[in-house]
Write a structure and sequence with these properties.
Blueprint (H helix, E strand, L loop, with lengths): L4 H9 L2 H8 L1 H7 L1 H11 L6 E5 L5 H10 L4 E6 L2 H13 L5 E5 L12 E7 L8 H11 E12 L6 H11 L21 H11 L1 E9 L2 E3 L6 H10 L1 H7 L4 H18 L6 E3 L2 E8 L2
Parallel strand pairs: 1-2, 1-4, 2-3, 4-5
Antiparallel strand pairs: 5-9, 6-9, 7-8
Helix pairs in contact: 2-6, 7-9, 8-12, 10-12
């Protein structure tokens, strides 16, 4: 870790975390499918729209957007992970989608086309900004007046059993990691709607509407208990939880998580509850 959170994030997503997402691209898409569906229900894309997809990862949402806007529209996907964008480009090529491009960039700091986009969207890609106020202002700058920002972000961890239940099982044997101060970059940095309202207002957005979705999701995209366990242990949360454990404690923690997964496994998948905020806001005129 350095004194530059943005540089740390770039190193993480171009390294071990990006590798994890590439290895589990299909699993992530299956696990997050309820949120992608709900995101596009709220986005209302039409042919000809110009779209920016923030934290696009392996491109699943960018490709859905590209099909929705058609040949007269275009989609730009941004992410910090070069290896994830290689997957995204390969997927776009396989689907013969010529109206979508991908760039390695930090949406907080990169230069974006002024007033060049009709919609900015993100499926869980906006929680990792080192300076969310700067980031949302930058996103506002690339929207035309009246353009829409549509994204989902996690509600508090205590509302997300898919992560809480395995974490508490492991916590009987290893200490829970320090998540840092409230609002620090990470999966739950935008879990407070009041703070998020303030950030959006300050960035130049108006008419922000919040609603929520609480689906049961297939942890790790399904499969055997061992496959789901591997997904969790090698994820960023799993690595943080086990980072300082000795071999004995690590093994006890992993076995405790295995038991929780086995207790909820239906032969094909493990379902746990989840909770996300969906936000739609408009760039002020």
């Amino acid at each position: 870790m350095t004194d530059d959170p943005a540089a740390d994030a770039a190193e993480l997503w171009s390294g071990i975390e990006g590798d994890h997402w590439v290895r589990n691209a299909e699993r992530h898409d299956t696990m997050l499918a309820p949120f992608a569906d709900a995101l596009f229900e709220r986005t209302g894309l039409v042919p000809g729209d110009r779209v920016l997809d923030v934290g696009c990862g392996c491109g699943a949402t960018s490709l859905i957007a590209a099909r929705a806007v058609g040949e007269d529209g275009d989609v730009l996907g941004l992410d910090l992970s070069p290896q994830m964008l290689e997957v995204a480009r390969a997927r776009a090529s396989a689907q013969a989608l010529a109206n979508v491009t991908f760039e390695v960039a930090d949406a907080q700091r990169c230069e974006l086309e002024p007033a060049g986009r009709d919609v900015v969207l993100s499926r869980f890609g906006v929680m990792f900004f080192a300076d969310p106020a700067e980031a949302f202002a930058n996103l506002a700058s690339t929207l035309r007046p009246g353009g829409r920002l549509v994204f989902c972000c996690w509600q508090p961890m205590l509302s997300n059993d898919w992560l809480l239940a395995p974490g508490l099982a492991a916590a009987a044997h290893v200490p829970l990691p320090d998540l840092g101060p409230a609002g620090a970059p990470g999966p739950f940095s935008l879990d407070d709607p009041a703070r998020l309202h303030t950030l959006l207002d300050g960035a130049g957005f108006e008419h922000a509407v919040f609603d929520e979705l609480r689906p049961d999701i297939s942890v790790g995209g399904g499969g055997s208990v061992d496959e789901i366990l591997d997904y969790l242990v090698t994820s960023g949360s799993g690595r943080a939880l086990l980072a300082d454990a000795d071999d004995a404690a690590r093994q006890l923690a992993i076995e405790a998580v295995r038991r929780v997964l086995a207790d909820h496994h239906d032969g094909e998948r493990v379902l746990f509850g989840s909770a996300a905020w969906f936000v739609v806001a408009t760039r002020a005129s």
